[in-house]
Amino acid sequence: MAQSCVPCYERPRNFQWYWKSSDEKWEEYLHVENEIIEDAHNERQEYVDIDGGYKIDLKQQIQQKSNSHERWPIKRYQFDKHLTNVQLREDRFSPPISISTPATVATMCSDKEILGADDSLKYWLNEGSLDDIYQDLENADIKKTISDLIQESSDGIIEEGISIGEAEKARWLARQLNNVKNYGENIQFGTNKVPSEIGKTLINLFTREPFFYVHI
């Protein structure tokens, strides 16, 4: 099985790709870019695109800006098997955690400046059951499987990624979901029985640094 088809939570993480900036400092590629380049490396591709209009030349070990002569060296570092490349997401995990209370939720739900006229969001905050909300809003007359929803999510991620200029990250994220989509083929949405393979994949992707985190 190709490495890119292996569920992301089962992949080794003992590698890191770097690029050399103009001040001669080696900078780490962030999580999803690191995985995109590693997939291409494992599949023996010569080139791979990353967001920002950059092309990675794996044969010559350089990063090049499209329609430009600018080039930056790249390199791959292999860690020992028992080590990983886990990078701390300071913006997400370092700040103190604020505890929500029923009072704060009620305040949020009554704050029109925050919620505007979005009745769906108010319903979500008040009811708290995403399964029930989705069924009420989208799934009332159509019996969808978890696999169907994974496909919808993948399509939505790609659409959003293209709209904000991060199409390559979006395509990689969508591929990871599609790699485990088959586990939900015969399971109707709303049964609260999410296959562990899909659950692990969702957690793995969310705890990286994909673009959709800042939109949630």
From TrEMBL:
TM ranges: none
InterPro entries: WWE_dom, WWE_dom_sf
Residue span(s) of domain WWE: 3-76
Descriptive protein name: WWE domain-containing protein
